[in-house]
Structures are given as structure tokens and as C-alpha cells.
Request: fold
Amino acid sequence: MFRFATTVKLYDTDATGALFFAQQFRLAHDACEAFLATTGLFVQGKPILQLPVVHAEADYAAPLRWGDAVTVEVRPGRVGKSSFGLCYRLCKSDGTVAGTVATVHVAISGKTGRPVRLPSVLRKALTAAAARRA
Amino acid sequence: MFRFATTVKLYDTDATGALFFAQQFRLAHDACEAFLATTGLFVQGKPILQLPVVHAEADYAAPLRWGDAVTVEVRPGRVGKSSFGLCYRLCKSDGTVAGTVATVHVAISGKTGRPVRLPSVLRKALTAAAARRA
Amino acid sequence: MFRFATTVKLYDTDATGALFFAQQFRLAHDACEAFLATTGLFVQGKPILQLPVVHAEADYAAPLRWGDAVTVEVRPGRVGKSSFGLCYRLCKSDGTVAGTVATVHVAISGKTGRPVRLPSVLRKALTAAAARRA
Amino acid sequence: MFRFATTVKLYDTDATGALFFAQQFRLAHDACEAFLATTGLFVQGKPILQLPVVHAEADYAAPLRWGDAVTVEVRPGRVGKSSFGLCYRLCKSDGTVAGTVATVHVAISGKTGRPVRLPSVLRKALTAAAARRA
Reply:
């Protein structure tokens, strides 16, 4: 499991006083970028491949407020030939799970735009993370 | 069915050249605000009640690019005692469905923060929209 | 003068109950895209040239709230050989000026990344808009 | 001087391949929240006072790209009776200054909405930061 620490910024909240729902995907995405950075897969500004999101979903269990410290736990989901899932849990400092996010990514060639096999470095990182979980 | 016309803005896209996935929720939310405005439910800045999102999901079928004209079709989903769903389809000008979004909202009191029955004006609007669909 | 009508969305606001300051640039940018679209300059997704912002500033006179109707007035600023300015005024429905924005853009070639002369179609639109103002 | 380390996220960029101009204010704001947190001024979710931005400006010297490591240097600007300025410099890892931001904040009472004297804890932090700079 990969852990990413962050805080809810003022711009993540809205006039209701809590997180605007779509910003939960921003928090998950920050954790995703940090997780992928650990795989050594990306060269800055020149991704070997693209990993567009083909499905995303989120559940909201407790409101997040401006300044809340959040730990995003990242776990691999299903790993396919050219796709993989990531599951995120947003935990407050008191352990409350404020919400969850899941994303499914497809690996496509930056040149052709067509699906490609997951690079082995990424597949290994996902498998290793899944093993640490078990 | 309620239709909302918009365009993909530069800030909706990212360095991969297409829509950043979380921005699809922004486009759906704009349509949601426009749909709710037709119900007469909200007084500007003083909502009678809050309608936080408790679940959100999106699928991505075709990339959206800067400047793309998009029609967001909004359909009611399941309507419960104090909750309701909305389903969105993002259609490009050539009819291609670029993606879909679904949100589930719970009506809560702005005062107590507890679930309340859907206001009849909202229930009627959702039912009417569902009937027009049939 | 070019006028663009919009409304403050929930995600434009923050937990203080008013517009998050950086979102004023979003509202101005929406007006900018709509203004530039009137010039016929852009082919969807294939800009003939890029117009990056090299300077941006904003003043905030009155708070904008969720649901506020806003008319963004766009006026050309200084027009140079390869640069131009745009000035925006955000007016509420009662005529109050909630804030102002100014941006300075440089025209650069999408191929070489170097400054180029403003296309005549853009120069004409800016001059025409400035004349209508006088 | 206060230093804040961050990276340019995918959603900070746009289809031109570089930072969307308004996102430079997001990077500066993250640094602002981190700086203010060091003053001990804010209680989570219950700010003693509000510090709305009344003026903001940015200059853009070099494009920032997805994944770029950025150090935001924060320096106090003019400190008044109920207002203060902050100046930010966004430096890339090679030392290049990619851009600058300046914001002016007014302290207002969360209750009355009227300007109040800067809290001494904030005034001291601003003065100390200015002294470290000299």
C-alpha cells in the first residue's frame, strides 16, 4: 500500500463549507501521480506512454473541510494486459474514512493512440503494491 | 430530458491534449446547476436545503478536445425519499457520446445537516423530466 | 465592447462563502474564449497560433456568491506588434462591478514557439472592438 | 523567506502543453496556506478571521510543464494596519524563475465582515519573514 499525505485546500471547498465533490478526484490524482513517480516510469514531460482514465468513481462518507489533513491510501485494483485499476481511501487524522475513489486506466501509445501492454516496470510496481497489501 | 450546451474550455484539457478526467464532472455539474435552476428550488445564495453528492461516477468513451461543442443530456435516475440520482450523457456535435456521468444526491437540511424529504417542487421536476423521457 | 453572460458556479466559491480569488480568472477566460471565437481565428483543436498569457492581474471589489449572474465586459487593451491586452469587468445584475481582470497575451508560433505578428483577423477584431468602445 | 516545494500536476497544464495561467495562482496559494500555517493563526475550519485577496497579479517568464519540480519562495510585501502583501517566486530545479505572483490580503472579521487590525501573531510572522530576507 502506498500512502500520500495532503491537506484540503481552500479551493477544494465550496460555499456549503465542505469539499466540492469533484475535488476528491484531485486529491486521488495527486496520490496517483506520487505513486506512479515511485515506479520510475515517467520521464518529466515526456511520458513513454499515456494512461488515460476510462472509468472513475467516488463515494463520500464524511465531509472534508478546509485544512483537514488527509492520508490517501492507494491500492492496486485489477491488473489487465493493457489496463489497471487503482483504489484510493481518504482517511482523516482521526482514522475516519472520508471517502473512496476508484479509477481504471488504459495504457496507450503516445504515438499511435492505441492500447499497448503495460510496461513491465509498472506491472511490477502494481504487483508489488498488491503483495504488500496481502 | 434536459439539454445543456457548453464547450470544452482550455482549462478543461491537460498536457495530453484531451479533457482531464475530473473535468467531466465539472461539465456535468454545470448541467446539474442549470437543470436545478429550472425547478425554481434555489434562492440565490440561500439554498433552502443542501444536495451533497454521495456517489459520483464517470465513463470515458472518446477524448474531448479544447473547443469541442458538447451537449450534456440530463436524465433523472432513481428518486427516493430523501435522495435522487442524475444521469448525464456528453454528446459531441456529430452525435458521438464522449462520456457519461452519474451522480447521487441526498437532500439535507441546511440547519441540522440531517436528511430531509425531497421538496415537492424538486420531486415534481424529476418526475416530469423522467416522464418526458418515456 | 464584447459582453459575456455567465453565473458563478458552486465550484467557483470556497468555504468562506464567496468566489475563490483565482476563479475570477476562470470567468474572465471563458469570456476571452468567447471573444476570440467571434474573430474566426481558431480552428477547433488546431490553433493557428498560441496566445499564452504573459501577465495577468485582478482586483476584487465586492464578493461574488454561488448563483450570481455575472456579465463580463471585454475590452481590448494595448495592441502591439505581437502582443495585445484584454480588460475585463465583472458586473453583477444590479450593475455593481464585482471585480476587474486584465491579461496580456503574446502571439507565438505553434511550430517554433517564437513570437509572430498578430494575425490581421485578430488585429482587426481588437481594433473594431476598441472603436465600438469609443 | 519561506520555501514551499511542489510539482506541476497534470491538471495544472492544458492542451498547449504548459501550465494554464490561472493555475500559477493555485501554486502560489498552496505556498500561502503553508506559510500561514507556520504562524499558528488558523484553527482548522474555524479561522479567527478571513484574509480575502483584494488584488492578485502574476507574470510568466518560462513555461512550466507536467512534472516540473517547483520551489515557491514566499516573501512578505507591504504590511499595513489591516492588510498585507505576499510576493511569490516560482523557481524550477535548475534555478530558472518560471514566474512570479503577488497577492494583497485584507483582514476582515468573520462576524462583521469589516476590516480589523492584523492579529499580532500574523504581523510578527510577516515582520520576522521580512527580517530574514534582509
In short: The first helix of chain A runs from residue 23 to 37. Strands of chain A lie at 2-7, 49-50, 53-60, 69-79, 83-92, 97-106, 108-109.
